[in-house]
Design goal:
Number of helices: 4
Helix content: under 10%
Number of strands: 50
CATH class of the largest domain: Mainly Beta
Strand content: over 45%
Shape: globular
């Protein structure tokens, strides 16, 4: 009977909680879309859950922030670069013009003491470490002398990673534990680690991000790829290909996936819509890298053994070119525009520029020892060297104009040679919104920040004595997705009333959009009910004398008694842990329970109440405390 009473009270609590949520929704002061005009500039603001366009903003979900900016004629305003913050405020106190301007001044000042609830003008740096972890670094603000925001633990060291669309999920291959980690970027926490049963290597997202393709090499058998449905988070298909480490690329229209391994002289072609193997193309040699050229609509493979660059026509799925270069070829990657590629050879220390339209090398140059990775910013190609600390840079003119001579500039990225790359993930990436790059240096255990045009890095982020194997930038700033439209995605953590603080420098626009974030009903229903424990015993407790400790348990919100806890036990400890007593509690009715104690010494005693709280959807109450005096 007593357990039935508890269930009834829990049901009443749930009903009242739902009513409270409905009332908050009815009296919310927010419209999903709002408009504001100032100094000839019109701003249309919209905030909605990413997964439910048109719905109200809800706590604990990713939301899309969207600003459409136009002038008095209605023409879109491009290149505006607005700054936006989100700040919690009291529900009954609207924000005036002067208060809004003061918030902008405070947030722009960047004071540690005036941080907004949510900052939409920052980016974060993820660092893949050689141990089983990923560092999360804030490159703009360092609290307490440290820029480390979080350390994401993994079951084993990561090998490769890929970021999903809207930067909501990070997929990390874990070869030693044979798993794929799925990391929530908003909270920087591991959501799950999917058991693969094979040793994964590359992780590559196809252009539309619907599937993630994971290469694997199973001991004693041929390798292949696992196709993961990103939205569902589960395996869609296992496709056998060849043994060894895999390279994966795609046609631009998401029609075909191309898979090659370094121990098999063929490229497997998979129809993405059907997830069926359609052809094996014999290319011979030892495949080192794949890259797709949209300008030539062709796939290119570097053969490290024979020294060839092999072209495959994507329409006919036939080999249509074979360019003889030199044995030892490694990475091939196309510059923006998709016609000219930078090809590296870590064996002979050469860098080649390859023209995919004409299938020929147009220029080449000798560089530092062991060039093994190339990545692009908006204006430069950056080349990493395993035998040097120097990063070489090629301008886009050098890459894309055959008449410009092969000229390189460089900068020293650290004090030691980089060493052999232990991951195919990029060690050099562009910082969001800047002509600057981040450089992961495993030997120096640093991430260097280099701004283009400087003679050396402007600074570095200490990686807390971990070897930085790869680096990734998570952009939380507003991006212009089309003319006059600026968007980003962020997690709305708590329900309540907020100001979305908007600032544009020229022409100057300052405004605070009031918005309400509704409670997350699903999350609220799963939260355990809070319990308050109140000691009812009175009078002096004396050592060596039996005393009755009585206490009442009640619901923190409704004030109703919690009854029927048949498994409730009481742990009493004499500080600092020199004596303890553990015994079942006796229920007296109306939420009151008791135990008989014989305290052996004077001092401070702490009481902890134990039960299967989680199974009852209850949160354990805080500890009680009482003082025992010496004998009279």
């Amino acid at each position: 009977m007593s357990m039935m009473k508890t269930s009834v009270r829990v049901t009443v609590f749930a009903l009242l909680a739902r009513v409270a949520m409905m009332l908050l929704g009815l009296f919310a002061v927010t419209a999903i879309a709002q408009d504001f005009e100032q100094n000839g500039i019109k701003v249309h603001f919209n905030l909605e859950p990413l997964a439910r366009p048109g719905a109200r903003p809800v706590a604990d979900v990713d939301a899309a922030f969207r600003f459409d900016i136009s002038d008095a004629t209605g023409a879109a305003v491009s290149g505006a670069y607005p700054a936006v913050w989100m700040q919690r405020r009291a529900e009954t106190m609207p924000t005036g013009k002067s208060e809004c301007q003061n918030m902008v001044k405070s947030f722009i000042g960047g004071s540690v003491m005036s941080q907004p609830t949510l900052n939409l003008n920052v980016y974060y740096v993820l660092v893949m470490n050689d141990d089983a972890s990923i560092s999360v670094v804030d490159p703009l603000f360092g609290f307490g002398g440290s820029n480390l925001l979080n350390m994401i633990p993994l079951s084993s060291p990561g090998y490769d990673w890929a970021m999903s669309e809207q930067q909501s999920r990070l997929l990390v291959s874990l070869p030693e534990s044979k798993k794929l980690a799925v990391v929530d970027i908003a909270s920087f926490k591991v959501l799950t680690e999917i058991e693969l049963g094979v040793t994964p290597d590359r992780v590559v997202l196809q252009p539309d991000h619907h599937y993630a393709w994971i290469g694997y090499n199973s001991s004693g058998a041929n390798g292949g790829v696992l196709v993961i449905d990103v939205g569902a988070g589960k395996l869609a298909k296992r496709i056998a290909t060849g043994p060894g480490k895999h390279q994966i690329s795609f046609a631009a229209d998401n029609r075909y996936a191309f898979i090659a391994s370094d121990l098999d002289g063929r490229v497997t072609v998979v129809d993405i819509a059907k997830l069926e193997q359609v052809k094996d193309i014999d290319v011979g040699g030892k495949s080192a890298a794949l890259a797709y050229s949209p300008a030539a609509d062709a796939l290119y493979i570097t053969d490290s053994q024979g020294g060839f660059i092999i072209g495959i026509n994507v329409k006919t799925l036939e080999v249509n070119s074979r360019t003889d270069v030199a044995p030892g070829l490694g990475q091939i990657r196309f510059a923006p525009g998709g016609r000219f590629a930078v090809v590296l050879n870590p064996v002979n220390d050469m860098v080649y520029i390859f023209d995919a339209v004409n299938d020929r090398i147009v220029k080449s140059g000798k560089v530092e020892e062991g060039p093994d990775q190339v990545s692009f910013s908006d204006t430069l190609a950056h080349i990493r060297h395993r035998g040097s600390e120097t990063v070489f840079m090629l301008s886009m003119d050098v890459i894309t104009d055959p008449d410009v001579a092969m000229q390189v500039v460089d900068f020293p990225a650290g004090e030691s040679a980089f060493g052999m790359a232990t991951t195919p993930a990029d060690g050099i990436v562009q910082t969001p919104g800047e002509n600057a790059v981040l450089v992961a240096h495993p030997v120096d255990r640093q991430v260097y920040y280099y701004k283009e045009g400087m003679a050396a890095p402007m600074g570095s982020f200490n990686n807390f004595n971990r070897r930085a194997r790869a680096v990734l930038a998570v952009d939380r700033t507003l991006q212009e997705t089309k003319a006059g439209r600026y968007e980003t995605v962020a997690r709305l953590n708590d329900a309540g009333v907020y100001d979305v603080v908007f600032f544009m420098e020229s022409p100057r626009v300052v405004h605070c959009f009031a918005t309400t974030v509704s409670p997350n009903k699903e999350r609220q229903a799963k939260l355990p009910h809070q319990i308050i424990a109140q000691r009812l015993s009175s009078g002096t407790v004396t050592k060596g004398k039996t005393t009755t400790l009585r206490f009442r348990l009640r619901d923190a919100l409704l004030g109703t008694p919690i009854t029927g806890l048949a498994d409730l036990s009481v742990l009493t400890v004499l500080s600092p842990g020199i004596w303890q007593d553990h015994q079942p509690a006796k229920e007296l009715g109306d939420g009151v329970y008791s135990v008989e104690l014989l305290p052996p010494r004077s001092g401070a005693y702490y009481v902890s109440l134990d039960s299967l709280w989680r199974s009852k959807n209850l949160a354990p109450p805080g500890m009680l405390m009482f003082q025992v005096s010496a004998a009279e």
